[in-house]
Amino acid sequence: MRCRELGRSGVSVSEIGYGAWGIGESAWVGATEDESERALNRALDLGVNLIDTARGYGESERIVGRVVRGRPGDPVYVATKVPPKNGQWPASDGVDPADAFPGTHIRSSLETSLRAAGLDHFDVLQFHVWNDEWVGRGDWLETIDALKREGKIRLFGVSVNDHEPDSAVELVRSGVVDTVQVIYNIFDQAPAENLFPSCREHGVGVIVRVALDEGGLTGRITAGTSFPEGDFRNRYFRDDRPAEVERRVAAITADLGIAPEDMAESALRFVLSEPAVSTVIPGMRSVRNVERNTALSDGRPLSGEVLGLLAEHRWPRNFYH
Questions:
Q1: Facing residues of 80 across strands?
Q2: pLDDT at 29 (0 to 100)
Q3: Would you say the pTM of this structure is higher than 0.70?
Q4: Are 99 and 72 contacting, i.e. CB atoms less than 8 angstroms apart?
Q5: What sign does the CA torsion over 126, 130, 133, 134 have?
Q6: Measured between alpha carbons, how far is 5 from 74 in angstroms, rounded to an integer?
Q7: Distance in angstroms (rounded) separating the CA atoms of residues 80 and 293
Q8: Which helix (H) or strand (E) holds 209?
């Protein structure tokens, strides 16, 4: 497993990390705790050293914490997230930071997460939404600094609003954030315009989520695809969206001259070909997916020619709405 620097933090993270939303048995249906633990342990066996979870991911923090505690000799970094107190997703303009992330809420959420995971600290604490209007306002930064001094967190980050990468550029430029987590994939290439250059300039680590577009860039979403009742992907891929995804992916595979089953590899290599990216955190609920994804950490970025072809396949949209 190849590693990259997480910005200026001094932390070196595996370029393939572990996205632990899907193992929380909440929005994603089908995970079992036994298989999730097997997958997570296999990832750690293969050199993955960053796990991303959140207070809002059902049982994820508990499962992650148990696995990590069972491997005391492994250097594993765990990142979690604080949900906004006002419950607004995404963070809208005109909201006082005292309503979304007051210091008392940040501390309370962190303490709850530590108890759930059975850990004494988290390596990265992220706000689960962000708005640049909050830079220099509220008591959130004072609280973050205090939690760092107390040893309860090591680094501070934000999870950037879905498909709104420019909404955290001012925070990056302020110098007070260590990491940003952002959607970046073949369809949504917008972070490369402003956010990534700012992160490189200011030494901010980049954690990429949704590299496979919630499954859209795996080559397995077709016009007839459906998901179990209660699975959030029924909403994400509702109406005629699966058919449109199928058409878009077919155009990509035709341009690249690859089979649909090779789409996921190309999608992950696209992300890893961006120098600003520190790590990508695909959801990996099975040992098979872990082994397939971690094998891509081989130092082989896509060629300039391929990246040029993929630049033509940008598809700005927001399926979360």
A1: 125
A2: 61
A3: yes
A4: no
A5: negative
A6: 18
A7: 22
A8: strand 205-209
Question: Can you read off the two tokens belonging to residue 237?
Answer: 């891929």
Are 70 and 43 contacting, i.e. CB atoms less than 8 angstroms apart? no
CA dihedral 271, 117, 85, 157 (to 10 degrees): -40
Residue 75: exposure state from Cβ atoms within 10 A (0-12, 13-18, ≥19): exposed
Q: 288 φ, ψ to 5°?
A: -60, -45
Q: CB of 158 within 8 A of CB of 181?
A: yes
* Alpha carbons 159 and 170: distance in angstroms, whole number: 14
b/e burial code for range 116-128 (CB count within 10 A of at least 16 → b): bbebebbbbbbbb
**Mean pLDDT along residues 94-107:** 97
Q: What is the dihedral of CA 294, 295, 298, 300, to 10 degrees?
A: -100
From CA 218, how far away is CA 268, in angstroms rounded? 10
How confident is the model over 92-100, as a mean pLDDT?
Answer: 96
How sure is the predictor about 87, in pLDDT bands with cuts at 50, 70 and 90?
very high
Which run of H or of E encompasses 60?
A: helix 60-69
Q: From residue 245, how far is each of 132, 206, 214, 236, 311 by CA, in Å?
A: 32, 26, 11, 11, 17
**In contact, 257 and 186? CB cutoff 8 Å:** no
Cα angle at 156 between 273 and 140, to 5 degrees? 140
Residue 222 structure tokens: 């077709």
